[in-house]
Design goal:
single chain; Nucleotidyltransferase, domain 5; 5-stranded mixed beta sheet; binds magnesium ion
């Protein structure tokens, strides 16, 4: 069994013309159940080492808090924060955690929607990205073995909650759906990220993947953020995007507004 944690970065909802955040990313990290306890321990060991105290009960790693030295990280030095960032990304590499993501350039996506459905019609990029990510995750599981199963776990705080549920249901249950996920079981769990180290890792990963994609897109990214790019390149999956047409068709059929 594999636990698959999803989080997004750059979500501006239906506002697809945001110059500050031109890119949306939905990322998934897949943790085999037999590695889960060891990874959890190492996750908290990294935090303990940097905070140099017992961890507060409500400690939560958030990419933005860490980067801006806010909340639990406000008394830490810049170096301690970078220590956490780098060690968390290395933790995923060391455990060979598959990272699957979909990037959407919002501007282009907006043009696609208008062309397909007419002026003013918009679709939440989350919906589209989730279909891609689910298919990639499914392929990734099937590559491990035909009976390899996965379960999707999301951050419950998200406004995309109902959109996510709707997509998942269509992907799995609708007999007409041209996209079928065979190895993903259950309906998707929505949990409090505070209680899930792996959702916090997904948050960090999604954030730096977005930075990586923004840099490729030509947006200015700080030097400090660029330091993570070798790690991100190492982590990200290969061979995405082969099913573009199917997914667009699926979007057309199920999510026309
Ligand atoms: Mg997040």
């Amino acid at each position: 069994m594999n636990l698959i944690y999803l989080d997004e970065s750059g979500n501006t909802g239906l506002n697809l013309k945001d110059d500050q955040q031109p890119i949306f990313v939905l990322a998934a990290i897949s943790i085999p159940s037999d590695k889960w306890f060891r990874m959890e321990k190492e996750f908290y060991d990294i935090l303990k080492k940097a905070l140099k105290t017992d961890l507060p009960e409500d400690i939560e790693l958030h990419a933005m808090d860490l980067k801006n030295q806010k909340k639990h990280f406000e008394n830490l030095s810049k170096d301690d924060c970078l220590f956490i960032r780098d060690n968390m990304l290395d933790l995923l590499t060391r455990y060979e955690t598959p990272v699957i993501y979909q990037r959407i350039i919002k501007n282009k996506f907006s043009d696609f929607c208008e062309k397909e459905y007419g002026p003013g019609i918009k679709i939440n990029p989350y919906i589209m990205a989730l279909a891609f990510v689910c298919m990639e995750v499914n392929d990734c599981l099937k590559n491990i073995g035909p009976d390899e199963l996965g379960m999707l776990i999301f951050d419950e705080q998200k406004e995309s909650f109902s959109d996510a549920e709707k997509s998942l249901k269509t992907l799995k249950l609708d007999a007409d759906s041209i996209l079928k996920t065979t190895n993903i079981i259950e309906k998707g769990f929505f949990v409090d990220s505070k209680k899930s180290f792996a959702l916090q890792l997904a948050d960090l990963t999604a954030y730096y993947i977005r930075k990586y994609e923004e840099d490729k897109f030509g947006k200015k990214v700080s030097k400090i953020d660029c330091q993570t790019f070798d790690k991100i390149k190492n982590l990200s999956s290969k061979g995405a995007g082969a099913k573009t047409n199917d997914i667009l068709e699926w979007i057309r059929k199920y999510h026309a507004v």
